[in-house]
Amino acid sequence: MNGNKKISSVAKGQFSNTVEFSFGDYSLNITPTDNETQFAKNHFVSLAANSDKTVFLYLSEEEEEDDDNSNTEEEISLYVNTLSVKNSHRISLFDHQINVINLVDDFSILDIYFVRSSETVSSADYHLKSTRANYQFAQ
Questions:
Q1: Could you read off the pLDDT of 65-85 as tens digits, one per residue?
Q2: Residue 122, SS3?
Q3: Domain that holds residue 112
Q4: Bridge-partner residues for 114, per DSSP?
């Protein structure tokens, strides 16, 4: 890739447009729209030859432990997380692959049931369980 590609104005919970890159190693600089503090500089992403991936970037917060000192403000550290998922191009009416990624701090485990019209939740043949994605890389 020659030069830089910029993806801007992606709202929380939204996706950017697809961007194609040649295989190789890349560094990402991630800055909020207010341009005050950079979330990440030189965040590493590697793309193998002939691969098709979706790269998810998300922030997680870690609060400083309470030091019982009311005179100091408790600090929150932000971490940028990267999750790469291989995209499938299989064509089949009967063969599907579903990936579930839990990025919600409020829920440590998600149970997802695929209930057909002849089933109930308790009798459903297809059930996925996803624990909290916890891929933290310090800034």
A1: 766 666 666 677 777 777 888
A2: helix
A3: 24-131
A4: 126
